[in-house]
Design brief:
Two copies of one chain form a homodimer. Chain A is α+β, with helices and mostly antiparallel strands and about 180 residues long. Chain A has helices at about 20, 65-70, 85-95, 100-105, 135-140; strands at about 10, 25-35, 35-40, 45-50, 55-60, 75-80, 110, 120, 125-135, 140-150, 160-165, 170-180.
Chain lengths: ~180, ~180
Amino acid sequence: MKQISLADLRPLPLGQVYRLIEPGPVVLVTTALHGRPNAMAMSWHTMMEFEPPLVGCVISGRNATFEVLKTTKECVIAIPTVEIAEKVVRCGNTSGRKVDKLARFRLTPLAASRVKAPLVAECYANLECRLVDARMAEKYNFFVLRVLKAWIDPSRKRARTIHHMGRGVFMVAGRTIRLPSRMK
Amino acid sequence: MKQISLADLRPLPLGQVYRLIEPGPVVLVTTALHGRPNAMAMSWHTMMEFEPPLVGCVISGRNATFEVLKTTKECVIAIPTVEIAEKVVRCGNTSGRKVDKLARFRLTPLAASRVKAPLVAECYANLECRLVDARMAEKYNFFVLRVLKAWIDPSRKRARTIHHMGRGVFMVAGRTIRLPSRMK
C-alpha cells in the first residue's frame, strides 16, 4: 500500500457522512492524550443526525479510550477496509494503556485539522469528532459525537468495509444494489 | 418462498442477538396500536449491551412509529434479507398512517410471544423488544430497547442482509472471513 498523506485525502461534505456509518462497518476510534495516540476497534455505533452529522457510540469503561474521550472530548473515527482487517483486529485485541498500538501494528497517524486525535492513513475514511453529549456515558457507556470534518481517500474505488458478526467472524461488504428508495 | 409460521422459527439465545445487529443491517420495526400493525424501515441502530441485549435506535418524529412506540412501549425488530429488499424499501417509502403496509406489500404478520407488535414471517430474524429508556427521545429521537425474545429462521443457511449506503444504494452482505479476534 502506498504511503498516504493528508494531501492525498479529499474533504467529504458533512451531509454525506451517514453513507459511511449507516452500513455498520467496524471502525477504529483514535484519541490522543498528552501527545500519546491510541486506537481501539468499535462496532457499536449509529448515525443520529444527518447534518451536522451526529454519531452515537458505545465505548466500554474497560477501554482506555473511555476516560481519554471524556477528558479530551475529541476523537477520530477511522473506517478501515478488508485489506487491513488483521491490523484492526489486533488493535481490538490489545490494550493501549501500555502499547502504542498504531506504531506496533504499522498504522500511520496523520495530523488531523480540527482535533488532536490522529487520522489513520491506511483507512478509507476518517471523521474528526467532538464529544457533544456524555449524559448517557455512566449508565450505557454511550457517547454522542459531532463530526467536525470528514476525509475520504479518493483513490479507493471500492471500499470493502468489514462488519463484525461476533466470535471472530467478519462479513466483508459485498455487491451493491440500487432500489428506488425515498430514504435519504 | 414457503409460508413460515412461528413453529418454523427457533428461539435464539439472547446473548447471541448482538451478532445480528452489530453488522448494521437495514431492519423493519413493527408496532401495533389497537390491533393495527405497522412497519417502518430503519438503519440507525446500535447494540448497547450484550445481555440482556439492549438496542439503541433513532426513529424520527416524522414516522408514525415514533408516537406508537412511546405509547405502547413495544416493538419488533425484524431483520430482512436481500430476497425481500424491494418490500423493505417500499415500507420505507410509504407512511403507515393510512395504509396497512404489511398487507399491501405481502409481508406476513405472526403473533409474537411477549409483545403485541407482530413478527414478520419473511424476515430471517425477529427480536421482540420493550422500550426501556426514552430520555433521549425528545432531543435525539433516540430510544433504548431491551430484547425480550429473539427468533431466527433455521432454514436460512446464508442470510444476506442489506445495508443502506444512502440514495437508494444498498450493500448486500458479502463473504465472511475469520480472524483471531478476542472481541466477544
